[in-house]
Each structure stands twice: as structure tokens, then as C-alpha cells.
Amino acid sequence: MSKSILLSLLGAAAIGSSLLAGCGDSDKKPEAAPSGALGKDGESCNSSADCAPPLVCFSNTCAASPTMTDGGGPPPTPRGATGESCQAHSDCQSDLGCYNNRCAAMPDTDAGSPVQLGQRGESCLISADCSMGLTCLPRLNSSSVCDVAKFPATPAGNGKVCGECSVATDCCELPYTIEAAEVINSCADLADKIKTAIGTSTCATTTDVTSQHLCFIQSTYCKCATNTWDCTAGKCSYAASCKGAGGLTKQGCATVSRTDQPLFNTCDATSGKCAPATTATGCKVDDDCAQTPVTDVPTDMCTDGECACVVATGACYRKCAQDVDCRSGFVCDTATTSLCVPAPGCTTDLQCTTQLNDVLATCDTTTGNCKQPCATDYDCSGSGGRVGAPVTGRLCIDGFCSIAGCVDDNQCSPLLGGAGANADRRQFCIDKPAVTATATYTSAITGGQGE
Hints:
This protein is of the alpha+beta class. The chain is about 15% helix and about 20% strand. It contains six helices and 20 strands. It has a two-stranded antiparallel ribbon. The longest helix is centred in the first third of the chain and has 25 residues, at about 1-25. The protein is elongated.
């Protein structure tokens, strides 16, 4: 029995020895990998084990471990410096804005400003990228930008519009074209020029053609005696008496108004006014026009059968046979008068689509005017300023783009009432003129019916 016990003890010892040997092998540590094989700051990784301590792996990039002060999240993405690409304000450093998808200095904004949303003119993707009161608007051929959400202007709603005069005395001003032609900038300059040209004479006695020309301009646009001008429906018309052929000469006719609107510049010998010529009694039938002056071309005489009579005014105009006989903006009324009359504005929506460059434009066949539908003021006008398209003076009123109207003269900007090179001339806020349905005629300019 003792022998069996001894054998058992020897077997147990052998097993224990082998177990100890096995434990000793598992406690042996592996050799550390060389530090140069681990990722550095900014290098790619799959897990933190790929990064050199103390770096960790965030979004497949080795980076410093987040601290408690940054909320424990991933490190902040570096924000763009000046000139770097961006899609919204938040992509740029705090003292920069995002303009045309590039980080750039913000106007009138202190450095280090904590503003995170786009200011007016900054690039954006959605309106949430813009500060309060702004919206993200698309721009043709460029990125969307933050702009004012609603125009501060509202329709006047008082039926007033802008015109070149409110009373006759408003018409007394040198037009730009005459200033340019005479190389002057004021009535004082004109007076000096007259003094040089006239010598010892006066405007009343001079027989020099150049002096008479300058003196007429002075009396018409600078001195403006009573009854020199009339103001009707916001437009200036020359009211003084005339004699002779007309034009800018002694006892002649004004050629343009203060805003360079063309005026009738020939003198009617019968009425002594700058107006279309009429016969002494006026025509009653077409045959009465033979061998009388053409109303709107008084230097030309109507030949037999060439002119038609407008009985209502007693005026004679050259006949037309087709639209091509009429000047631009007029068509031949072949159905009734055989005279050139103003062309209708529009008759179909397709005409307005082309005219306004808007497939949604419609034609108001009652007035012959094209109408542009709208949902917001931006459909009718830009917002101006640094980044907006030009202001047109139109707002979205009752679903269509319309002139906003005016409250006082200061609202009458060149865009609302200016004219060509005279757009800097002051305009006046006046009651909207009543629309009259009187017909306007003009003589044919080509062959017409005169064979």
C-alpha cells in the first residue's frame, strides 16, 4: 500500500511541475512594436492602436484625445482661413465670412466676433445658414447668398406716380443734351457765353444767328417768363408763341423738355404755337388735304390722294397701305383710316414671355400691357446694396410686379421717373394721370399709297 501511495505522490508532483511550467510561459510579455510604426497626428487609422500614444483614432484620423473641456467629442474641424473654400459662414474662422464660397474679411464686423451665421451677401446652402431677418436666395450663375428676407418698402397705395413736373415752373431747367451741345453746366455758364458772343448788343436787338440761338435757350430754359411752359399729366410742353420755322432760334420752339423728352419743334403758322399744322378751317374730307401741309411734317405738302383727313382735329396725314409704311411703334390701320396708329402693346401671352423673358408672363388684353406674375418682391426687383441685383422700384402687388408708387418727391428716383442721360434730374410725386383713349396718328414714312 505504501508503494501505491508513493507512486501517486510522484505522479502528482510531475503534473504540478508541468502546470507550473505552463503558467510561466503565459506570463512572458511580447516585445513592444517600434514607435515609428504607429500613426502620427493627422495620419490615417482604423483604431486607436494604430496611433502613437497619446493620440487616438477619430474619424479614421489620428488626433489628440478629447478633454473634458471640449465635451468629450471629436476634435473640432479646422475652420477656413482667408481665401480658403467654404459653403457657409460656419466653415470660416470666427473673424471671417463666406463670400462667393471663399473665406474673406467681413465688412463692418469686429475681429473675433462670435457670429456663426451668415451676414448679408455671404454664401449659403439653406436659409438656416443666414442670420435672423435674412434668407438664402439663389443667384444666377453664382452660389446662393444671404439677403434680406422681405423688402422694407411697401406700396404707397395712394395712386401717385413720378413725373417730370408737378407745376409749370418745374419745367424751367436746362436739359442735359443742350448743356452738352453748348458745353455748359449751368445758366450762369450760358450767360457768360452769351456775353462773349453778343458783344455790345442785347438779346432783343442782336441779329447774329449764333447769339439769337443762345438767347432763345436762355429765355426758354433759364429765365422762363410766364406762360413759357405748361405741365400736363406730369409732362412739360412748350406753351410760348412762335413765329417762323421753329427750332432753337428767335421766336422758335423748344426741342426737348428738361428731361430730354422730345417736343414738337415746328411752328404752326395758323395758331402761332409749336404744334402740328392745320388748315385755316380744318379738313372735312380727304380731298381737302390736297396742296395743304402734312400735319406732322409741315415742310411737306400733300399731293392729290396722298393724305387722309382726321375730321376730329382737321389734320392731314400721309396714308399708309401696310405696317412697313409706318415708323417703329406704329401700325397701319387698314380697316378704317389708312393711317399709322400706335401699335397695340400685346395680344398674346407668348409676346409677353419674350418681352419680359419670363415664361409665366401674361398679356392683359384690356390694356395691351404685359404683366409679370410674382410671389415675392424678389421676383420684381433686386435688393441693391453690395450684393443684390439693381433696385427697379417695382414690388409684388396683388400677385403681379408693379411700380410701388410714391409718397413724396424724394422717393422719385431715376429708376421710377428718370429719362436717359437726364436721370439725375429731379422728379416729382404727382397724382396718377387719367388714361385717355384719344387716338394718335402719324404720317407714313415710306411709299404708302402715293404712287
